[in-house]
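Morning!

This is the sequence you dropped in the shared folder:
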Amino acid sequence: MMYSEFIKGTGCKDNKQNYKVFANLEIMYMYSDMTKEEIYEYGRKLVDNSKSETELAFERQMKVAINEAKQMIEYYKKEIATAEMMLNFSFEPEYWLRTIKESKEGIKIYRMRIQTYKNFM
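The structure's back. Tokens below.
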């Protein structure tokens, strides 16, 4: 059994502690009648998949960015509602039509950003 197979089979992270677990389980695998699946199942209980401080900080940053993007989407929705209302009472409909168009584009951009941020998490 190779370490890369162990990582895929258990879904664990590649770190020193998990490599030590692998080394011990590899010996069990070699000298017993256990299948790889049984070793993977046993390994899942022993591996450490806790997140590092760097990973936790990155997740926090992504959550803040997602919340900011959601706030911008709400802002653009209010802009659209205001522009639609003003469109009926204005002598400058081009301005309000442009505002609606730009706000809709802004919403698309921020929705794409949210999706990108979620993909990184």
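Headline: The chain has two domains: 3-46, 53-120.

More detail when I'm at my desk.
O.
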